[in-house]
């Protein structure tokens, strides 16, 4: 169980459009207090109308007391942020993208005397990008990283690639959490006393949806296979918050516990 005595990190699944932002605006403070959260990480790759993030939203999320941000395949969807990646020092993009891509894949944070390294990594199976091998990338990277706590957001499609990376990084990082599918898996566990793992933490967005998007458009696309742009659900009756939390022993930096959040809220205002 997460207690006041552990260093507690909350990782929020992909924030999908306005429904994801709205539900966190209402509920994040309560979750932070309930679980004694010390550090908040959020995946913001779908926060702006489902694709990418904007300048306004980056600042809005900081205002909501989120400490660090991860991303994924949609990180460059909005042109307006392309020249901001050096300034936005709370954000990581997939580290195994080409070096010429804007942004950094690893960033360091200090909180309560803890040095946290946050890494964003993208998978290769069924992904349209052609990133460097995530396994070899981590081997190279981990030789250079010095931190008390190392967190990896592995943005990938298949549970097998994610679980394989989890075992590959056992005892070398503190937490590997998956994102990208927007559907939470039930395989959270400690792989050892040093490493926690979950294949996917889910999303923050419309619960009445296909991975946060309007189901009608999605169904249509599958049947007719014609181009149509996905859109987040405008006014969902229910929204979901998907997340994972770890409690770290402040003395040893070992993982005391890993817990998930999958909460569905009725949007009474609709
Ligand atoms: Fe996503
Ligand atoms: Fe994604």
Please specify the SSE layout and strand pairing.
Elements: E1 7-12, E2 14-15, H1 17-34, E3 39-43, H2 55-63, E4 68-70, E5 106-111, E6 114-122, H3 134-142, E7 149-155, H4 159-168, E8 175-179, E9 189-190, E10 196-198, E11 203-206, H5 215-224, E12 238-248, E13 255-266
Parallel strand pairs: 1-3, 2-11, 3-4, 6-7, 7-8, 8-10
Antiparallel strand pairs: 1-12, 5-6, 9-10, 11-12, 12-13
Walk me through what this model shows:
It is a single chain. This protein is about 20% helix and about 30% strand. It is of the alpha/beta class and about 270 residues long. It has a single domain, classed as Purple Acid Phosphatase, chain A, domain 2 (4-Layer Sandwich). The strands form 2 sheets. Strands 1, 2, 3, 4, 11, 12 and 13 form a 7-stranded mixed sheet that branches. A 6-stranded mixed sheet has the order 5-6-7-8-10-9, covered by helices on one side. The protein starts with 6 loop residues before the first strand and ends with a strand. One fe (ii) ion (FE2) binds next to loops.
């Amino acid at each position: 169980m997460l207690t006041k005595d552990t260093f507690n990190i909350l990782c929020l699944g992909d924030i999908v459009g306005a429904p994801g932002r709205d539900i966190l605006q209402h509920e994040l403070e309560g979750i932070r207090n309930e679980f004694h959260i010390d550090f908040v990480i959020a995946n913001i790759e779908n926060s702006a109308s489902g694709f990418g993030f904007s300048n306004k939203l980056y600042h809005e999320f900081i205002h909501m007391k989120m400490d660090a941000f991860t991303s994924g395949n949609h990180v460059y969807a909005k042109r307006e942020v392309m020249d901001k990646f050096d300034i936005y020092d709370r954000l990581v993009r997939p580290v195994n993208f080409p070096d010429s891509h804007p942004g950094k894949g690893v960033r360091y944070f200090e909180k309560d005397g803890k040095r946290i390294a946050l890494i964003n990594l993208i998978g290769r199976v069924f992904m349209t990008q052609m990133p460097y091998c995530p396994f070899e990338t981590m081997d190279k990277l981990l030789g250079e990283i010095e931190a008390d706590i190392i967190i990896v957001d592995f943005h990938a499609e298949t549970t097998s690639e994610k679980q394989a990376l989890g075992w590959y990084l056992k005892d070398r990082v503190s937490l590997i959490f998956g994102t990208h599918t927007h559907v939470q898996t039930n395989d959270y566990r400690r792989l050892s006393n040093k490493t926690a793992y979950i294949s996917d933490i889910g999303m923050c967005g419309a619960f009445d949806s296909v991975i946060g998007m309007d189901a009608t458009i999605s169904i249509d696309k599958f049947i007719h296979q014609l181009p149509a742009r996905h859109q987040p659900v405008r006014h969902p009756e229910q929204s979901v918050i998907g997340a994972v939390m770890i409690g770290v022993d402040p003395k040893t930096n070992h993982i005391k516990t890993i817990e998930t959040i999958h909460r569905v809220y009725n949007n009474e205002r609709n």
